[in-house]
Every structure is written in structure tokens, then in C-alpha cells.
Amino acid sequence: MKSIVSIDKLQQIGKVEKNVFGSFVEHLGRCVYNGIYQPEHPTADKNGFRRDVIDLVKDLHTSLIRYPGGNFVSGFEWKDSIGPKRRECIDIAWEAVEPNIVGLDEFMNFAGKTGSEVMMSVNLGTGSIGECQEIVEYCNMEKAGYWAKQRIANGHKDPYKVHYWCLGNEMDGPWQICTKTAEEYGRLALEAAKIMKWVDPTIEVVACGSSSTANPTYPEWDRKVLEIAYDRVDYLSLHSYYSYPTPDHSMAEFMASPTGLENYIHTMRATCDYVKALKRSNKDILFALDEWNVWHMWDGTNETKVKWEYGLPRNENLYDYADAVVVGGLLTTIMNNSDRIKIACFAQLVNVIAPIYTDPNDKKGKVIKQTTYYPIKMAADAFIGKTTLRTVNMVPNGETKTYGKVPLLYTSVGYDEEKKEYAALLVNASDKVNSVQLDFGEAVEETSLVKLVSDNLKIKNTVDQPDNIVPQKEDVKAAKGHKHTIQMPKYSVYLVSFKA
Ligand code: AHR
Predict the structure, then answer these.
(1) CATH architecture, range 16-383
(2) Is 291 an annotated catalytic residue?
(3) For the segment 167-194, what is each residue's pLDDT rounded down to a tens digit?
(4) Which protein residue's CA is at the shortest distance from atom 7 of ligand 1?
(5) Are 225 and 189 in contact (CB under 8 A)?
(6) Amino acid 324: pLDDT
(7) Is 253 a catalytic residue?
(8) What angle do CA 165, 114, 239 make, to 5 degrees?
């Protein structure tokens, strides 16, 4: 099998922002309790946060973390999570207990340690617009008003200056606490955005788009919400999870997931731009793909086994090699839409459908990097700050039931004008070797090649065998030239760097 990727550095799409490598921490399962926070763990710092986890979060360039939910936020009483007196609550979204040991201030402290910006979501389920106003006051006002003074009294003199705010979560979903119609949510989002921006005019807000392309209200929800709230919102939230789309668990269908994401983004571009025209607006709505990942639900890991406890396993996927290849492909799609996607959060950060996984059986145990950790790390290392390029790809196609005709090679090429450096993320989504020719239209030399390869699609990294899948370095080919050919084994992820 052969492919040709023609690259022209003048065909620029957009800069890959660091916030495209954001993540998501929800009060759910073992993400917070027994994940990032485990005071009895040997690596815990004085605040109870695991240093071994913090190191991996930093290593992944996790620039931004969405917090505290997710479905959780639609019942979250933020005032219970601050100050000296904490109230244990029940979390009806996940049928769990929220002890409020880690609250808003503690999480800000954690994010400071990982060097991540926090994107805060507000409760538009059981919460009110008044509470949205107050949480912005608590986080962002210097000293005026009761809530800024409360923050100072709680030991946090400087405002947190939270810039990004999500106006609720998945409000179209019947599973959400206080689901809304598009009209109800549109009005609420508009008013919440207005009031929150009156408190702090520098903030940017994210309106909930459809939570799934499978929802019957997709994509009408998005159109209706934007028709109401367009002028006040800055971002539309996109959520997208992938698993085997057909009952036979066909690998070919699963490998085509990046095409599913591309189709979704395409529809959302069209929807936003339609409303832009309708409004005679000159503003573009940007995308916050603030939940994306592979998520398998067919294996029972989603079920609540023990209710009304906290820190117990929930929604944990132990990812295999095939999942890592699909995550690599999804990353090419995300980066190829970098003119519009300025925020993306792989969901979630630790234990809950996450690339970082702590030993569930040993409270003093290890943390491991799941297979999916590596494509994220490879892409983040090479692409942040680069500008992605629109390439012309002559690649073999496959035929799928789910998405129709799909490419069998997914690619994204980034370029750094100043350093004259290129990075190519290549994902062979087929079961055949692919001889991939990259044609740069100018003389370049290969400077590094890192690859994820395995013959075993089902192999996982486990607590006992954490290094089954790790990236491998290959020796670079010295020759400088316009064209470089890379032999990609079946189902593989390559990151190749070049210098002009
Ligand atoms: O990430 C897990 C859950 O998936 C989130 O709580 C929700 O927003 C989505 O449905």
C-alpha cells in the first residue's frame, strides 16, 4: 500500500494552541479521591496530592484542566467546597458521596502544582444565575464584595483570575440533572454569560453544544442555542467519545473514528457559520472540544457497583494498543482543525477513562502510563505552537458501514516558520504496511522519528507490566531532500520531525 502526502508550508490552517492539550478532572470515581489526591500515598505532598501523578500531568503538557464536571457539576454546590466548615453531600449524578475534602481552593492549589490553567464549569442544573455570579466573584474579584473577602479569609489573597468558564454541562442530555430544552438553555446561557461578564468582563465563556451526535436534538440544539446566545458566548462545547461502533467490534470501523470526529466538526462549523450569517455578525464562535477520548462502555466498567461512597473505581477503561492508535488518529483531526479548535480536553486526566492510571488494589501502589498516554505526549511534544498545514493526501481508502468512505492513513503536519521545522503525525489505520511518501516541496532533513508499533492490538500497559507499549526511537535517515518515504507497519503511529 502506498500514500503520498504533499506539503506546502504556505497552506496554513492555524496555530496549535497549548490548550488543545487540556484535560478534565471531574469529581467522579477515582479521579480526584484516590487519583490526584491520596494523602496516605508515599508520594503525597503536604496537601495530599500525589507527586508521581503530578509529574505525569506535567509531562503531558496539560496546559488547562476543566473542573469540577461533567455531570457532577449540575448538582455541585460550590459554597460547600470552600472554607473551614465542609458539608458532605450526595452526588446524584454518579450516585456517590462528595465529602468536599478537595474543593475549589484545593483544586486551584493542585493546578498550580501542575502548571495548568483551570477552566471552571458552573452549575446550570440545580444552580442559579446568582450562584454563577458569586463563583466568578470568589475566583476573580480582587477584594470587593462578600465572596472575594471570603476567598481572602480562606487564605487566598490573590484572585485566581479564571479566564474560561463553561456554562453548565451537556444540558441537552436526559441523563443531566435538570436537562433543558435548547430554548430554555439558550436563555439561561445568555443571562448567565451576561451577569458573569458584568462581574469580570475579561472572561470567556463556553456554551454547551450537543453532548453527542447520537442525541435526537443534534444538531438543531446547537443552532437554537446559538440563535439565542450568539452575541454573549465565545466558544461552543463539543463532546465526542469513540468506541467500536458496530456490534461485531470491527476494527476497521473503530479505526475510522477520526473521520467521525471530522464529520462532527464539519457540521458544527456549518451550524455556527449559519447563525453568524443569520445574525449579520462578524464574530466566529470557536470550539472547545472539552471532552474527547476513546470510551468503551460495553465491558461493564460504567456500572455503579457500590453507591453512596467516594473514591471507588468508576468508568475506568484499561486501554489497549488499538485504542492508542485511534487516539493518535483523533489527534490528527483535532490539530487539522486548529483554526477553530482552540481548546480541547482529553477526558479525563486520572483513572476515569484516563491516560494516567493509579493502582486500584494498593493504596501505596504505582502510577502507570496507559497506552493512550503516548500519542498525546508525542503530539504535544512536537506540535504545540506549530501551525498545521493543509496537505493534499493521495491515500488508499476503505469502506465503512458507519462513516462510508474513509482514508486509511490519517495525517497532520505542523510547521514552525521561525525554526523552519516540520512535525508529521502519521497514523496508519489499516491492517497493511503503508509506504508513505512525504513531499515537502523543499529540501528538508529528518531530525527524529518516534513510533508506536505493536503486532498485538489487544495488549495493554498494566500495573505489573507498565511498559508493554512505549514509543520507540528509530535512527534518522541522513539524506536531505524534498521527498521522504516512511514504511509504516499496520496500525501504527509515527511522529517524524524535519528541518529545512
Ligand atoms: O467524562 C465522563 C462524563 O461524560 C461527563 O461527566 C459527562 O459530561 C459526559 O457524559
Answers:
(1) Alpha-Beta Barrel (3.20)
(2) yes
(3) 999 999 999 999 999 999 999 999 999 9
(4) 70
(5) yes
(6) 98
(7) no
(8) 40
